[in-house]
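Reviewer 2 asked us to include a model.

Predict the structure of this chain.
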Amino acid sequence: MAPFRPLPGLTSAAWPMRLLLLAGIVAALSLGRDVLAPLALALLLTIAALPLVEWMERRGLPRVPAAVFVLVLAVLVCLSVVGLVLSQALTLAGELPRYESTLREKLLLIGEGSGPINRLVDLYGRLLTTLDGPAGTEVAAVRVTSADSNPLASVAEVGLLIAAPFTTLAVTLLLMAFILIQREQVRDRVLRLAGIHEMHRTTQTMTAATERVGRFLLVQVLLNAAMGLAIGLGLWALGVPQAPLWGALTFALRFVPFLGAPLSALFPLAIAFATTDGWTTVLLVIALFVVVDLLVGYVLEPWLYGASIGVSPLALLLSAAFWALLWGPLGLILAPAITACLLTLGRNVPALSFLDVLLGDSQVLDAPARFYQRLLAGDAARAAALLAAEAAAAGVAPALDRLVLPAIAQISQDRGAPSFGPALTLTSARTLLQALETLGEPEDTAPEVLVLPMGGALDRAAAAALVAVLIEGGHAAGMEAAPGHRARLVVLAAALAPRTPRVLRAVAAAAARGTAVLAFGATQEAREGFAAAGHAAVSASGIEAALGETPDLVAA
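Predicted model (structure tokens):
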């Protein structure tokens, strides 16, 4: 069996240079956030708007009017959403004083029913009073004022704070219009920078990224709209004021990964708490959000998304945290799309294949590698589960051939490494023996084929695997026999290279317990050891043929 090979692109002497390059890229992204974040958002919106622009161009509309129309349409949509939110918010602000008595009653009810909390608050207040000094001590109040403070400066600061998002939006829309109009030139420049000799790879990457992100955005908009509509209608049916506002807020906040849905539920809950009598409506609002979110998140999203993004949930969570730290709220919104683009690069550019391993949702270790890793970790339960699943799917013999024998060969090869050592060899061999026990041991104490290990735990594991294969093949096999029983065939099983004296002693002892003796080498090393002692050994693939011939290595 060939030993496991490292995944391509993961082992390289250039890792220090890659880490240095990665640090430089992160620093550049952080320093250029004011330009790069709007550019990334513009690219995202361009991908979303490109199908509409191309459809209008196919209908005969020139490119510039088509791009301007899409841009105006985007501005109108934004203004409509902002207008709806502002109008609903102003209406709600005017209606809230009517619910003051209801809110006061609920707060009093909560205060009366939370005795332990009130006692903790009182204790905290008394401790603060003690720390502030003895009663009656007057402390002169000192007020610090700034000589430069004036109302105009405060108004200017507030104006800059409000204008910042609108400035970002204006820059984003301007970049979006430019990219839509000059998209061929932008594409050609990217191709030229990537290298003309790799044009096919670059083209495949750009096409895959555009399709993946575009499909993801379309599905996300549809799902968010469906959830916002369901929440709005549900809140309206429950009698919660300004239900359209909360539906629109749910639609907008759900673009924020992980945090959007919980945040969208806070405001309707607070309004239901303040404006309705009793607790029934509050509980129904909670149930509404939970049911709709579960339906969208666990039924509709897997069905509609399919392989549209291909990012693992853990990678998406870490990516959201990274981009939020780097670019703020805008980075949090852009995280899924950026991660999908990085994943596409990893799947199409060999030098960046580590991105596919880090971000993708596909299995990065095959079953033999996962089985071997569980043996190294000493996790017999999980190794047995993997072996049982493989045996149920393909049969015992194919499972042993695919999982156990490669693991034995790998242990045999790795045991000489300084970082491996005898202790890890013993641990992995014993774990393998425990996993093999789940396949079932024969109860027959008079086996037709008696399998004897040549030496230690790894040889015993090879013998146990061979017994399982023989039993599935219909042979009465076992590793133990009743005193005085003489088997038709005795098989000497080895995973490590046996020394010549040991082989000769084992063959002589086996000849006394069976009519014929056969040597089985689970690894090439073991077969070479038998050959050096003058006895040919069969491998796993040749065991059935050898059993049919029952060769006499030693005459009875």
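Residues 19 and 212 are 28 Å apart (CA to CA). The chain has a mean pLDDT of 79. We have added this to the supplementary material.
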